[in-house]
Amino acid sequence: MKVSIIIPCISINEQTIMCIRRCLELEHDDFEVIVLPDATIKKSKDERLRIIPTGKIKPSLKRNMGIKEASGELLAFIDDDAYPSRNWLKNAANYFVHEKIGIVGGPNLLPHQADFVERVSDRVLKNFFVLGPASIRYRPAKNRFVAELPSCNYISRNLGIVYDETLITAEDSKYCFDVALAGYKVLYARDVVVWHHRRSSFFKHIKQLYIYGRDIALLSKREPSYGKVYYALPSIGFLVFFTGVLVSFFSDLARYWFLVVLSIYALIILLSSLDRDFSLIIPSWLLGMGSHFAYGVGWLVGVFGTRENARVRWNSR
To answer: What is the pTM of this model?
Structure first.
């Protein structure tokens, strides 16, 4: 099966070049690489590589342009700050012998050359007590069917489905939901691996969680279902925390139980942040709790907001 690899980006920098190079080294017989930067650059001499300038548009628009240009039966999506393992496509293609599988993706692991901030962010993201079931996106786990996967690492049948161009971060969730509505399944496979950089600062990590919470709430509000209820859990926790702070001013008993519950929560996040690298523990603990706070606030903004925040154009860094 021919595969079209689609890489949206702002510009072709060192990380993008690494991504392109690793894609061209993949163990697969028939594939093309479509790179979508903002501006025009020189054409590549490799016939498998096409570089198509898009202008300054959102990632969802770029991916849709890539889909339109693609000639493959399968569409492979990867971020420009990621790069695939050599058997990425080969392993994924094995699962498509099952006709009802529409998307195959797997973990996006931290590159070995990552700095301290990325390592802390990674420690938070793969913590089950911070991200819940979504934590398997950042560490190897057992193969399973899931509701959604991130577009930094999944391969989809070319079903004529496109991305929702009004969303910034949850457009890949929407894509997965649409594939499921078409009667196909989304498979997480531990051997379909890419290496993916994390955010370059703690602020950008918090911003990422806030924007994702906001956009998944906008999506859930637009297309409500019982299966999306668990997305609201961090915001429920935030409301409980806020209510506890207020009530504590008026009741000693309420203050006592609020502090007990808050201490148990903080202890759970601390214990789940333990690592052989002691330098990661305290930053991961604090960032883990901050991630819950940011996502919870973002989800509430999405639920009660009337439109998407159009000023956020790109969320890849």
So the answer is: 0.90
Q: What whole-number distance in Å separates Cα of residue 136 and Cα of residue 127? A: 9
Give tens-digit pLDDT for 118-127. Answer: 999 999 999 9
For residues 117 and 44, membership in a common domain is answered with yes
> Of 184, 202, 220, which residue constitutes the final position of a domain?
202
Give the number of domains in the chain: 2
Looking at residue 153, its amino acid is N
How many residues does this entry show for the chain?
A: 317
Name residue, tokens 């930067």.
37
pLDDT at 188 over 80: yes
Q: How far apart are CA 210 and CA 221, in angstroms?
A: 17
What is the separation of C-alpha 75 from the centre of its chain, rounded to a whole number of angstroms? Answer: 17
d(CA 34, CA 160): 17
309: in domain: no
CA dihedral 86, 89, 91, 95 (to 10 degrees): 170
- Residue 314 within a domain: no
Q: Which domain holds residue 250?
A: 203-304
Q: Residue 311: is its pLDDT beyond 60?
A: no
Asked whether residue 189 is domain-assigned, the answer is: yes
Q: Which of 150, 173, 202 is the last residue of a domain?
A: 202
Where does 37-193 have alpha helices with state H?
59-69, 88-95, 116-125, 128-131, 171-181
Q: Are 255 and 265 part of one and the same domain?
A: yes
Tell me the three state secondary structure of residue 108: strand
124-164: pLDDT as tens digits:
999 999 999 999 999 999 999 999 999 999 999 999 999 99
How far is residue 293's CA from residue 287's CA, in Å, rounded to a whole number?
10
CA atoms within 13 A on the CB side of 142: 1
Same domain, residue pair 120 and 238: no
The radius of gyration of the chain from alpha carbons, rounded to an integer in Å, stands at 20
